[in-house]
Write a structure and sequence with these properties.
- The complex is a heterodimer of chains A (about 220) and B (about 260).
- Chain A has about 220 residues and is α/β, with parallel strands linked by helices.
- Chain A has helices spanning about 45-55, 75-85, 105-115, 120-130, 150-160, 180-195, 205-210, 220, and strands spanning about 1-15, 20-30, 35-40, 60-65, 70, 90, 165-170, 195-200, 215.
- In chain A, a hairpin with a 5-residue loop joins β1 (about 1-15) and β2.
- With about 260 residues, chain B is of the alpha/beta class.
- Chain B has helices at about 45-50, 80-90, 95-100, 105-115, 120-135, 150-165, 180-200, 210-215, 235-240, 245-250, and strands at about 5-15, 20-30, 35, 60-65, 70, 90, 170-175, 205, 220-225, 225-235.
- In chain B, α4 (about 105-115) crosses α5, α4 packs parallel to α6 (about 150-165) and α5 (about 120-135) packs across α6 (about 150-165).
- The interface of A and B includes residues 13, 78, 101, 112 and 113 of A.
Chain lengths: ~220, ~260
């Protein structure tokens, strides 16, 4: 379960006349195991910020985010690194591509980093690449030259390859055609059926419906 | 409870009355990569020179804890310190010419390092050297060539091999890709990254290039005027910087 409790978040832009942008005041919600929560609201309202606070890449100004009985707001850097490794999958909006590393290696890496053996990691990754419809001749190439949709699927594969209890998805179905979108939707459903707590940003009504999400409207949540 | 591999407390070093670094405290855990960023003169190099034994700090504590053995780095005898530096630490210089002997063959450079930690059998040294030359993507037919015949990127890869071959516990890197062409840089970075993952290395890397830090470092510290002004997870410091200077650094990076 993910619990977001009385969270405040603002940004101070020192180099732009100390402008202070308040994103959330007293934000509260929770995500139960097996549940898919969709964050809803116009762009700029802070949907991605919530995912980043849960992942620990944005500071939580006030309040608590509880995962595995641990409060992200007060964990040290190495505790967050450990929690990410053992518990949190994060699919960012764009794949951060590293030159010269093949798509297959990008996907295998999270498994290898947590001590899985190479053979096992290879088999799992190949299976996922096939499920995601990535053509075989691309597996050993750097995703740098892939199309947006292909990159996005590699990104999803990297985030989905491990069995983790929490998944954060930042527009996983954007830039995909309808066939690939359905494949991703089914993968997300499968995770949810296995009890994973999922919180995501889904730009299209279709995905939200198919995934049977519980919507959290940030327009309402952030009206103070 | 994991014990930090390296724990630094209130470390200070001045040059006459110029501050090198001041009251630095930090911890590094096994398998972590720590990035140090900051402008020229901010104290990055002074800090890693103190930590790696190249400079004697004025004040502070440096404690290494390797395989449950604690070493109070600033309070051991000179000979113990030399031995510790030789066997447990490694230093990759920005300019590979500072870390290699250019009039000794590539294999000889690596072999020397092995001999310094006690290897004596020529056959073993040769085969380990060959393995490592190969690991850093240098053709093994070049093992008997002098480094002066190598390109900048090859030299840097050779220096990395020389440093890693003895399995040091902490590796310091000072702008390891600083003097290289961009295309060569990517290859060296990539190599460092895969070695870090494969061998679970503990690394402290100094760079003024935030992209390098983002790619390699789990945690980072930002230095200014000799002090640490911000520290944390690399992605957190880069995406949500809390200090004015860090915001300026991050927002000054040109996007391609």
């Amino acid at each position: 379960m993910i619990e977001v409790k009385k969270v405040n978040k603002s940004f101070t832009l020192f180099n732009q006349n100390n402008a202070k942008i308040t994103v959330f005041k007293n934000l509260n919600f929770e995500v139960n195991p097996g549940e898919i929560v969709a964050l809803k609201g116009p762009s700029g309202i802070g949907k991605s910020s919530i995912l980043k606070m849960i992942y620990g890449s944005y500071i939580i100004d006030k309040g608590a985010i509880i995962i595995n009985n641990k409060n992200i707001a007060t964990l040290s850097a190495q505790e967050i690194l450990k929690l990410r490794k053992t518990s949190i999958g994060y699919v960012s909006q764009f794949l951060k591509v590293i030159p010269r590393i093949s798509a297959l290696d990008v996907i295998m890496e999270p498994l290898l980093n947590s001590g899985d053996n190479k053979n096992n990691a290879y088999k799992k990754s190949i299976k996922l690449l096939k499920e995601l419809n990535i053509e075989k001749n691309l597996w050993h190439l750097s995703p740098l030259t892939f199309s947006g949709g292909e990159q996005q699927r590699i990104n999803i594969a990297r985030g989905f390859i491990k069995d983790l209890p929490y998944l954060l998805l930042d527009e996983p179905t954007a830039s995909l055609d309808s066939r690939n979108r359905d494949i991703i939707i089914n993968l997300i459903k499968a995770k949810s059926n296995r009890g994973v707590s999922i919180i995501g940003i889904f730009h299209d009504e279709y995905s939200r419906k198919k995934l049977n999400v519980r919507e959290i409207d940030l327009n309402i949540e952030t009206k103070h | 409870m994991i014990i930090p591999l390296l724990k630094v407390t209130n470390l200070s070093k001045s040059y006459d009355n110029i501050v090198g670094c001041k009251n630095i405290s930090m911890s590094l855990y096994p398998g972590e990569v720590l990035g140090i960023v900051g402008e020229s003169g901010s104290g990055k190099t002074t800090l890693i020179n103190c930590l790696s034994g190249n400079l004697e700090p004025d004040r502070g504590k440096i404690i290494f804890n390797i395989n449950n053995k604690e070493t109070d780095f600033l309070n051991i005898s000179e000979s113990e310190k030399r031995k510790f530096i030789r066997t447990d630490l490694a230093f990759v210089h920005q300019n590979p010419r500072d870390g290699l002997r250019l009039n000794v063959s590539a294999g000889g450079n690596i072999g020397e390092k092995l001999m310094s930690v006690g290897y004596r059998h020529y056959g073993n040294i040769r085969s380990l050297a060959t393995k490592w030359v190969n690991k850093v993507e240098i053709d093994k037919s070049r093992i008997d060539d002098l480094p002066i015949t190598f390109s900048g990127g090859m030299l840097q890869r050779l220096q990395i091999a020389k440093n890693l071959i003895t399995s040091p516990n902490v590796i310091f890197m000072d702008e390891p890709t600083g003097g290289l062409d961009v295309s060569v840089q990517a290859r060296v970075l990539d190599l460092i990254r895969s070695l870090v993952n494969e061998l679970n290395l503990t690394v402290i890397i100094v760079s003024h290039d935030l992209a390098v830090i983002r790619l390699l470092a789990d945690k980072m510290i930002v230095m200014k005027n000799g002090t640490v002004i911000e520290s944390g997870l690399s992605d957190q410091v880069l995406e949500d910087p809390q200090q004015e200077y860090t915001q300026l650094l991050v927002s000054s990076v040109l996007q391609v």
